[in-house]
Each structure stands twice: as C-alpha cells, then as structure tokens.
From TrEMBL, chains A, B, C, D:
Chain ranges of the ThuA-like domain: 3-218
InterPro entries: Class_I_gatase-like (IPR029062), ThuA-like (IPR029010), Trehalose_catabolism_ThuA_prok (IPR009381)
Protein name (record): Trehalose utilization protein ThuA
Pfam families (alphabetical): ThuA
Top-level taxon in the UniProt lineage: Bacteria
Amino acid sequence: MIRVTVWNENVHEKLNEKIAAIYPKGIHGAIAEGIASEGVQIRTATLEQPEHGLTEEVLNDTDVLIWWGHRAHKDVSDEIVNRVHDRVLKGMGLIVLHSGHFSKIFKKLMGTSCDLKWREQGDKERLWVVDPAHPIAEGLGQYFEIEHEEMYGEHFDIPAPDELVFISWFEGGEVFRSGCTYHRGNGKVFYFRPGHETYPTYHNKDVLRVISNAVNWAAPRHGIRQTYGNAKPLEPIKGQQ
Amino acid sequence: MIRVTVWNENVHEKLNEKIAAIYPKGIHGAIAEGIASEGVQIRTATLEQPEHGLTEEVLNDTDVLIWWGHRAHKDVSDEIVNRVHDRVLKGMGLIVLHSGHFSKIFKKLMGTSCDLKWREQGDKERLWVVDPAHPIAEGLGQYFEIEHEEMYGEHFDIPAPDELVFISWFEGGEVFRSGCTYHRGNGKVFYFRPGHETYPTYHNKDVLRVISNAVNWAAPRHGIRQTYGNAKPLEPIKGQQ
Amino acid sequence: MIRVTVWNENVHEKLNEKIAAIYPKGIHGAIAEGIASEGVQIRTATLEQPEHGLTEEVLNDTDVLIWWGHRAHKDVSDEIVNRVHDRVLKGMGLIVLHSGHFSKIFKKLMGTSCDLKWREQGDKERLWVVDPAHPIAEGLGQYFEIEHEEMYGEHFDIPAPDELVFISWFEGGEVFRSGCTYHRGNGKVFYFRPGHETYPTYHNKDVLRVISNAVNWAAPRHGIRQTYGNAKPLEPIKGQQ
Amino acid sequence: MIRVTVWNENVHEKLNEKIAAIYPKGIHGAIAEGIASEGVQIRTATLEQPEHGLTEEVLNDTDVLIWWGHRAHKDVSDEIVNRVHDRVLKGMGLIVLHSGHFSKIFKKLMGTSCDLKWREQGDKERLWVVDPAHPIAEGLGQYFEIEHEEMYGEHFDIPAPDELVFISWFEGGEVFRSGCTYHRGNGKVFYFRPGHETYPTYHNKDVLRVISNAVNWAAPRHGIRQTYGNAKPLEPIKGQQ
C-alpha cells in the first residue's frame, strides 16, 4: 500500500469560476480521484490548512507527495519547505506538477532558477515518449496529446535530468523536457509538465496514468539508513596523524 | 586568456602554525602559484576582505572561481552566496575543493545535504580515472596517489554527477566519487575531493594538473543569452484562449 | 509473476572439482535457488543445450534473463546472441554477472571493449551503495562485503552507466563500478560484478538480494510498441517535397 | 592544430543532378570548406577510395572523423568499421551526421537499433539548445532554424545520451534528440541530426558552427594509456589464492 498525499495551494479554484467549474473538488481532488486504485491510499492537503496540511505526522506517513502550486509559492513557509526537503532526502518520493517548477521546494532541490518560457494561448501539446523502457511510460502509446495547454518552452533551467522520459511538442513552435526524473538523497523526484489550471488536464487519462506510474516509481520500500560524519577505519592504516 | 579567481576562507592558515608552514601564502596562494600558466590570469580573494573579495566587479571579471572553505562556511554572507550562484547560472565556472562540499554555495547548487563520512588519520588515497575521455583527466596516468589525506567516504549525498571522472580508494576501506562534473544553467561546476589543510596536497603536481584541466573545462566562451517568461508563438496556433 | 531464465555456460563446474563442490547444481542452480520467491517463476538454460537453451519460445516467455559466462564466450553462437539482443531491445530485462562483461551479448549492447583489470588472489571486496534511492539497493546496508573475490579494477571500458549503484573497494588497492544500469531500447540491463567461480559468492545473501532486486527492477510490464520508418505528418506542412 | 578527416559515401552526389547542384564538391567538400579555420587541418575521404580512404595511416593521423553515409552503409567493409571503432576507443573523436545514424560504425558504438521515424516532405526544423553550458552550443542563439529538412522523429532508439544538447521541433508534429554526446573508451562521439542530401543544410552557418564546435569538443589532447588484464596488487593482500 503506497501512501500518497496530494498537495495543492488551492487558490485559483476559489478565485475563478471557470477554474472551479473544471475542478469542483480542487485540482487536488481531481488528482486524488484520478489516481485512486487498490494499491494506493490517498489524502490531500492544502495551503490554508495549519502547517499547510504537511505536519510532521502527515509527512512521516507519506510515501509520495504530489505538489501543485502557482500563485502562492511565496506563501509556503520556509519551515515547511525545509521539512519536505528533509523528508525527500530521507526517502519520500516527490512529484512536482506544472507550475510547481517555480515552487520553493523544487527550486531548492534543483539548485537552479527553474525558469522557462510560457504562453497561455491554448497550444496543442504532444508528449513523445523518449525512454520507452522507463516504468513511468508503462502502458502509454508512442505519444499522447493534450488538445489545449499552456505552452512551456526551452530553455528550462534545470539540472540535466537523471532520466528524460517525455519531450513535448507545442503547436506554436517550442519543445520542452516534460518528464524528468532525479534521485536526491534517498528520495526520488519526478517533474511532470502538464496541468495548467484553466484546462481539464487532470481529467485526461494519459496524464493520470503518468502520475499513477510515477507514484509507483517514486515510492520507497525498505530504504537504507546512511550514517555520516566521523568514521572509524574498516581496515588498518599505516598513515600518521 | 581565462580569468581565474581563487577564493579561500584563509582561516586555518592563521590559527595553526603547522598549516601555515605548509601553506605560507595560504591555500589560495599555493593554488594560484600552482596553476599559473600563460593562458590564465589569476587573482585571489579571501573571506576577511570586503564582500569577501567577491564584489560584482570581481565576479563579472571572473571566468572560473575556485572555492576552498571549511571552518567558516557559516560566515560567508548569504548575499555573496546568491551573487555567486547567479553568476554560475549566467556562465561562470566554479571549482569546489575538498571541504567546500559543505559550503553554502555548493549546497545551494546541489540541492542535497552534501554530507559524507570523514576521518583524519592520514589514509593513503589513490584516485582512479574512470572517464579517460574527459578533458579533466588529460595527461594523467591511470591513477595517481596522495600519500596521506583526510578520508572522505560514501555515501556522498550529492546528485548523480553529469560525469564521474575520478573514484578514490582509501587505505581504511572506503571509496569516494572524487571528481564530479555538473552543468547548472550556463555554468559548469566541478567538485574535486583532495585538499585537507594539514597535508601538502596543493603542492602535488597531479592535483594541480587536475585543477588546471578543470579551469580549462569550466571556462565559458561565447555563451548563450536565454530569454525566459512570456513568449510569442513562432508558428500559428489554432488554440482558443 | 516475473518469468526469469538463468543462463550459465556451465563449463567450470564440469572441469574442476573444487568449483563443482561449491556449486553442485551449477552456478545457474545456485542462483535459481537463491532468488526463488513467490513472485518469480524461474527456469535455467545452459550452453550445451540445443540453441543454448534459448529458443524463441523460451525467450518470448522470459521477462528477465540472467547471464553467467567466462571460458566459453566464443562458443555462444552469433545467431543466439542476435536473438537475445533483439529481445532486450523489445523489452526483456538482462542481468549480466561478473565475467559476463566479456560475453558477446554484453559487448554488443555496450559498444565498447568492456575490458578491465583483474587478479585472482582472494582480495576482500567491499561494495558501497552510492545511489541509496535506487530500487536495486533496497534493503541493503550502507555496504556489504565479500571476504574473498577475484579483483576487477578500473578502468572498466563501458559507457558511463545511466545509474551507478555500487562501487567496490578492493584490498589490493583498486576500485570498480560494480553495479551499473542501462536502458537499451525497451529493455533494461544491469551489470553486477561479483561472482568468480572459485568462491561461494552466489551463496551470499546480500549478493542474492541484489540479484533479486535487479530482477524486479528489470522486469517489463506493459511496454510500448514503437513504430519506426516512414511517418505521415500529424500536423499540416507548408514545406515543399 | 586539430586534424580532421571528413568521410562521405559520396553516392547521391553522383546519381542525382539536383544533389550534385547543391553539393558540387560533394557533401564532404561542403563540410570541409564550411569548417575550415586556422586551428584545423582538414582532409576528406570517400567510400570508393582504397580502404574507403581510411587506411591505418590516415586514421592514426586523424583527431576527429566526421561521417556522412546513407545509401551505401552495407558497402562499408567490416574491417574498416572495426578499425574506426578501435580508433575511437583509443581516443579519436567521431561526429556522425544525419543518416549516419544507420551506419555500421554508429550502430556498433551504440549497441541499439538506432531506428527512428522519418519523412521527406520539407518540414521546417527548429533546433532548441537545451544545454546552454555545453561547448557544442557556444555562440548559437537560443535556437536556430532550417527552413526545409527531412523529418526525424522519436522514438530514436539510442542509449540515453551522456549529454543532450539540442532538441528539434518539426512542423509536422514530431520532436527529436538532435545533438547527443557520448564518451566511448578514450573517445568522444557526437551525433548531429541535420543534413539530408536534398537540402543545402551544410551551407547553413549555424549547422557549420555546431560541427566546428563539435570538432573542438571531440578532439583528444594528451590522452591516457590504460592497461588491462592481469594486475599485480598495489597493496598487501591477506587473501588466499
């Protein structure tokens, strides 16, 4: 049983009727419903909750955290960001969606600006699978399409991904590294591009399949407890000191 | 002509006679002398200088910054760290040495704890070249040795390097990824393990050769000026909005 | 249920009493017994069988193939090598053990000489986990040891692995990239170093755990059927012919 | 001084007047002229020459080999392919262009099918720089365009590149990993997509700049002479034999 927490800032849904109509239970609600299955136990958490819903208890009880944010990145407290960061390094999986590229937690884990090009003009997006052996691409076709999406274009200022799973083609002439995996400490991180709030992207079955696959990929099992710091020799040393 | 700035916290050298005897001109002085050559123009900077010697002018005039720090990581101001970080993303090369693994700038660029095992017992270290095609390994033998060094052992909590150039063998039974390259934004970063302050490591010709090679590898040339943010379409879009 | 085929040239076991005493059921038998579990269905195949036991039927019914060879690499027919190669690109997992580094199938998949240094002198080997987030390292400690093994030393002439999971320390002064993952087409490949025929390495529980983990990692699920060749446009083209 | 050999099968140019009109000196001639500069010494070689113009003497005198082939891949002798392969592993750089993806030498170095989708319909191609720190992208803009080219589309069945420098956008709806680097042994390999024979691609200044940059990147300097095989211990071993 993989324990998933879907986090959403849940701001657009309250301010904009059109968005609320697309996501009546919030983006978090749509994702939680969309990836529900037997092997997964899901809860949601949002910005307005105490500690943004991400208490020590919740995080310790989370195998994979899914993150959607956009307007309110700056309102996420540094303390919670550090707590999530620490949990990732200890083994929790993290799936960062769309505009989460500019979240504090993603920038902290990447070490770069995470900047990119964007355009809200309803481009068609076609996501090509470039690593068909990857478990995150399991069960997809050679590509899948999203009829209308916000465009994100290169250069995307991220570290070269450990594995590049998807590349997006956009109608307006751009490309984007849309599915990127990273190991950070004991934890796994997956960035997945689609999901602008004004489109019904999280009702798309291919998008949901990718998120489900990523949950399975990112979930830790037994883990390893490293030790750090001053270490006794395992073999005899002739050296001085 | 590559413009290099060698930065050193320059603390141990003032507090400890033995260290001062090994590095009478400071670690920065030894490195600056050791990598001097026709194609390189070198200056040094230290923690105690105004703005730690890393003013906007100095950084804008620097192609490659070399960083040595240990005791005083916390005394480096966040403002300067952010300035260096910004310059790396814009194209400046950065070479982080030894205990610099725990510097603010390295941790910020890596996004992980950068923790490791260590032991000050004069282990013999043998650095094996595992990527012989890499320019940073140019001119070396299959391995080189340092008679006595501080041990650093795995697990080293860093992102998987873009390229792994050296792996160290230690007498006491550990291994370490000792030469790691990363691209971050427009800039190149090289982490190189050797260089504990109590050993004459920066007088070792192989160590100096690696640092010289890394300076050449990390130096930017023409660069690329990205633009980010809202972007007009390059092709017609049928999409709504 | 993952369908595993353990392939072994099964030559040393017949020629040398000491080796036969260590592996009375052959290296393939020891591995098959050692990784037996509920979720895995295992068969073995050996060089002397018709088509080396690797008929089209067997390979089509295999999710993960484990390969041990040493003395008889040249006796494996090119036709079977091509068949295995084709199956890997179509999705079958492949785990290559120890002296399999010089097998035809591994060299064909890697594209390099796969050469290395070696020594049969019973060195102690200590395998350090350098990617603790990797599923192949699940459940291990920070390192594990093999009291006596053949030494393999760098430079190991392989492509830089997609992921480096283990680095070995050897008593005699060498290091080695001992656990290397690769995606090739739809298939996953794992090279794992230990397992010289004169030592009881495949009775070691950590070694067996790694192989079990690798079976789980390498097993394909749904897969993707690519098409290649002449492709019709998905969008209108203004271009001339 | 970097010694470059531009190899071309030189078949299309003889069979097709339109192609001969675009490349009156052959594709090899156009490239040789296009990348000529002070630091480079260039010769050409073609299929019809004895040993395809790639004698031991020529290869030993070559730092970087550029390869264009299409119709006549099967006519390249295995002996010469093995010779080139051996030279790459010993340190010679290799730049494989466009339809060279299906050459014997590229497939041998990659270990995969190197298959892809294609279409000859004059798609517009736009190559985006995704690794702006890479020396092969030096001096380019954020992207460059080729008005009409043959389309190559994913999935491109290659190993994940060590570094991905360019991604192509095609008018007809596809994407492609267009600039891929690999280290193989002591040698560096760069695959660069553009260059169908029916378009004047090798007269395009950005394309030529990329090839020039790649020549500089791929050229070996001092190199390292590895030894392989039976190795004496560097440290004392307690182990048995």
